[in-house]
Design a protein that fits this description.
Layout lengths: L1 E6 L2 E4 L4 E9 L4 E9 L6 E7 L4 E3 L7 E6 L4 E6 L8 E9 L4 E3 L3 E6 L1
Parallel strand pairs: 2-11
Antiparallel strand pairs: 1-3, 3-8, 4-5, 4-9, 5-6, 7-8, 9-10, 9-11
């Protein structure tokens, strides 16, 4: 079992920046892929960015060039630096961890609100 706790959400004006953090505990040795997902009101949860233990990353097209995901496996933490935020980035952001058995763990979510 992996437990995830997000922090760093908040309210920011369009064009501003926020940094989200996720701290993992429990069976962290089993984590392969970590990622950030978001869910806006009335919409499905979508992938924002993922990072593998190897360090390779994938980003949603909508955030490429604006968001940067990073991971410190030694400290069991992951971050998402979000720059040039847009109102359409407003959502609850969730931290996710996928282990080598393809079992998924989720954090409780953190609200990001971007005002125009």
């Amino acid at each position: 079992q992996v437990q995830l706790v997000e922090s760093g959400g908040g309210l920011v004006q369009a064009g501003g920046s926020l940094r989200l953090s996720c701290a993992a505990s429990g069976s962290t040795f089993s984590i392969n892929v970590m990622g950030w997902y978001r869910q806006a009101p009335g919409k499905q949860r979508e992938m924002v960015a993922v990072i593998r233990r190897s360090g390779s990353t994938n980003y949603a097209d909508s955030v490429k060039g604006r968001f940067t995901i990073s991971r410190d496996s030694a400290k069991n933490t992951m971050s998402l630096q979000m720059n040039s935020l847009k109102p359409e980035d407003t959502a609850v952001y969730y931290c996710n961890a996928l282990n080598y058995n393809a079992e998924s763990s989720w954090g409780q979510g953190t609200q990001v609100t971007v005002s125009s």
